[in-house]
Amino acid sequence: MTRHRATIGAASDTQPTSPPPTTTSPDRDAREIVATTVRFSSNTTSVDVTIGEDNPAVRDFLSMLPLTLTLEEFAGREKISYLPRKLRHRGSSGADPESGDLIYFVPWGNLGFYYNAEGIGYSEDTIHLGTYDASLDQLEQLEGEVTVEIID
Known about the structure:
By secondary structure, the protein is mainly beta. About 10% of the residues lie in helices and about 30% in strands. It has helices at about 30-35, 55-65, 135-140; strands spanning about 35-40, 45-50, 65-75, 80, 100-105, 110-115, 125-130, 145-150.
C-alpha cells in the first residue's frame, strides 16, 4: 500500500453505475452510515473500525458483510486483506491516509489497516473507509482468518 507503486492516470472503475445493494435499511441515511462500527475479529483479538464517511466504496464494502478475510503484514506499514471482489468506488474521493485509517486501495482491490503512514501522501487510488484505535500488538494478533461484521 505504499505510494511507491507506480500509477498512471486516474483510477478507472469498470463496475456498473447502478447503486450497490446494501445490508443496511433502505432509509438509512449518511449519518447512520458514518456511525457504523465494523468489527474485525481473529481468535485472539478484535479491532473495531468506525466508518468515516458515506461514499460508494463504503456502501459497497458494508453490503458485503459479514465475511471472512485473510489479513497479512505488508511493508512494515499496514495489515492488508484482499476482498472477494473489487469495490464499486466511482464517486469516492481519494485520501491522504494516516496511521489508524482503514483504506481501500483501488488498483489491488484490497483493504489496508495503516499503522505507519509516515511519508504516505494523497492518492486518488486510496479511499478512506474508516478509523480504528488499536495497539500494534492488537494488529499483530489480527492475522490469518478474520471475521468481519457490522456490530452497530
